[in-house]
Amino acid sequence: MTINPNADKHISPTGEAFIRGFESCKLLAYKDYQDKAGNWVYSIGYGHSHVDKDLLINQDQADAFLDQDLKDREKIARNLITVALNQNQWDSVISTLYNVNMIEFREYAAALNTADFDKAMNKLLEFDKSNGKQLRGLTRRRQAEAKMFRGG
Q1: Distances (CA, A) of 55 to 16, 43, 59, 66, 107
Q2: pLDDT range class, residue 69, cuts 50, 70, 90
Q3: Residue 42 pLDDT
Q4: CATH tag, 13-149
Q5: With the C-alpha atoms ordered 144, 146, 108, 90, is the resulting torsion angle positive or negative?
Q6: How does 77-101 read in b/e, with b if 16+ C-beta sit within 10 Å?
Q7: Is the separation of the CB atoms in 25 and 59 below 8 Å?
Q8: Residue 34 CA, distance from chain mean position
Q9: pLDDT tens, 97-135?
Q10: Cα–Cα dist 31/51, whole Å
């Protein structure tokens, strides 16, 4: 049986602060994106999705949603990332997973698992588009995640 080299990894306070810095906190549900059927998906807090469109929460609830969402992302990352990562790398990976779709993350994980981190960073930087359009905010986030991954 192979032991996952990241089995004991958790996002650090620095990594969580990084995510909070890019994800604004909204205490009233908002239209986030449209699903494949064209229906609006509502989110709340720091991007906690699939909530009722009329939901209103307080800061403690937003923090609890974020904590749970980060734990969920860590579980996914542990299942997909087989190469050992240091803390900066783990934080960067969780931030990316928090903000990209699963198709993109699987591509990124596959690149990481080759242990060719330059190739993986090039793959990461591709995920700065929404509906095919490059967005400055996503470009800035991917660049910051790449910098964090490299230890900066």
Answers
A1: 24, 9, 13, 16, 34
A2: very high
A3: 97
A4: 1.10.530.40
A5: negative
A6: bbebbeeebeebbbbbbbbbbbbbe
A7: yes
A8: 19
A9: 999 999 999 999 999 999 999 999 999 999 999 878 999
A10: 10
